[in-house]
Design goal:
This protein is mostly helical and 191 residues long. The protein is 75% helix and 0% strand.
Length: 191
């Protein structure tokens, strides 16, 4: 891989990671377009996601710090949010453990990614139809697990993790900002 190709892939990752589009799918398409071998780029893709993780930690540092200190401060709301985030992560961890090889073999093709991009768009449009009135603090355990299942579906490279989790939150009537915050908070441990 050349320096220019590395820069292009870094730009693709940077532009797509925080939008409700699949950064992994876009990276895969860019790599294919540049004729790069898919089987040797996973380490580089992980490195690119390291930048994403750093950005998430910096952006949500205050929230993570508040949740980390919540047991010592008696902050029940932050303790509960931390528990919900842990629960929301479990479906993705389980699915990743059991399905990673199947997903890798079956869904890392440019044609499947194209279809997944279309599905992603339909899900986002459908999520806008729900009335959003709830704050993330009102999430129930079942809500967190459902959003976690949406995150697990995003193991498929053409489906956006943020799009699916935001759409799931909106379908559960979370306000737009609360669905976004919960989605990005739950991204931190999974990325």
């Amino acid at each position: 891989m050349t320096l220019l190709q590395s820069i292009v892939l870094g730009i693709v990752q940077g532009l797509t990671e925080f939008l409700p589009v699949s950064s992994s799918g876009h990276l895969l398409l860019a790599e294919s377009w540049m004729g790069l071998p898919q089987d040797r780029l996973q380490d580089f893709d992980v490195l690119l996601h390291g930048g994403t993780l750093l950005a998430l930690i910096l952006c949500y540092a205050r929230e993570w710090w508040t949740m980390a200190l919540s047991p010592f401060r008696g902050d029940r709301t932050s303790q509960r949010l931390l528990l919900l985030l842990i629960l929301a992560t479990i479906p993705g961890v389980i699915a990743g453990y059991f399905l990673a090889d199947i997903i890798e073999r079956s869904l890392r093709t440019t044609s499947s990614i194209g279809w997944e991009f279309i599905i992603n768009g339909i899900i986002l449009i459908a999520a806008e139809r729900f009335t959003q009135t709830r704050a993330k603090e009102t999430l129930r355990v079942s809500d967190a697990l459902l959003i976690g299942c949406a995150q697990a579906l995003a193991l498929s490279p053409g489906l956006s993790r943020s799009a699916l989790t935001i759409a799931a939150g909106r379908a559960l009537t979370l306000r737009r900002r609360d669905a976004l915050d919960f989605s990005f908070l739950m991204a931190t441990p999974i990325i």
